[in-house]
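Data availability (excerpt). The following record was deposited with the supplementary files.
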Amino acid sequence: MTVTQTMQRILLIGTADTKADELSYLQTEIARLGHRALIMDVGVLGVPKLPVDHANHEVAKRAGMRLSEVAALGDECKAMEVMAEGAARLASDLYLAGQIDGALAIGGTMGTDLALEVMSALPIGVPKLIVSSVAFSHIIPPERIAPDLMMILWAGGLWGLNSDCKAVLNQAAGAVVGAATAMCGVLRSDARAIAISSLGGSCLRYIGHLKPELEARGYEVVIFHTVGMGGRTLEGLVAQGRFAAVLDLSLIEVSNHALGSPVHSGADRLETAGRLGVPQIVAPGAIDSVDDRAWDSSGRSSEAGFHAHNRLIGGIATGAADKIRIAEIIAQKLSISQGPTAFVMPRLGVNEWDRPGQDMHDPEGLAQFEATLSDALSGAIEMHSVDHHINDAEFSQTILAIFDDWCRQGLIAPAQDQDQKKRAHS
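Predicted structure:
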């Protein structure tokens, strides 16, 4: 069987003066694979040494400045910040106009800083790859990494071509072209989707109850594992209008951020759905634990009571004062909600180790969490307290009862719109 391959258009991002050889090599390699590379020059001072499709003055203009004004800043950091803003806007516009299918950037720390901005501006699902001298380094803040970003270390790079550098560039060209080709023609389900946050089957088990019930109602269910990047992906897809409703039932990323843990999803976690008016049902899954890197002896892993889940991550119980602070932050975040919002409080525990005799069990602290939250929540937010554990079937039944009630009221869009139903039966 012969398969017709659609030509993918890859946006190449780099400085066309200092990285001309590498950009040219990538362009040639992508063409050899049967696809097209469009070059965006993000340099400021040098003269491009190869033809480009999007010149540096165009990039600067997208940031509201002339290139000469950027150069006159006299500060390479400030100049690159301006170019990063322009490059992000230009890349986003090119994608929305249907002119690119993926993006590939190359650079050292300066180019990586710019590339992170550009990749975060592209929607989740658009193939994005950075070839960097600091790929996934500890100097890169986690919140600046796009949830679906690919990175590869630029071994032997930054100063002309050599066999090691070429090997990396070949991999990068093949990876971004392959990803763009794989995405070509991929269609999402006709069913509207529901987002659910969770934290693995041993800690939080409501997915086993909720997923089949929501699917039986005709919805697609998308689950996010709340270990940092999962929550960032959830927020990003909510911002893209992906979901009819959000069941945000695991908030450990919120509590982690509040208590200074590196395992978080940024300061805006639990805010996007509310800000955009997306219906959301919220619960405090796993807020009785704060995570840390199990391998980092300078963090909580050295404290008494720390339980290593594996060699990457572990957790320690939160105290009553922690729970009060977390409740205040959750209430503050939910206060911006523009759409239907409900909070379901499972009084008998918020993760599997929050049961009598287990390490996280703290009924007094959980009661203080509930009291603080109840006092701080806006009257527009529904508060449902249930005398069950979060992993009990009755908790999930409460979630579904609220969901079904909102569906009956027309607050949650039906699983399929009328046009989709007509197509399905034609």
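Summary of structural features: The first strand starts at residue 9 and ends at 14.
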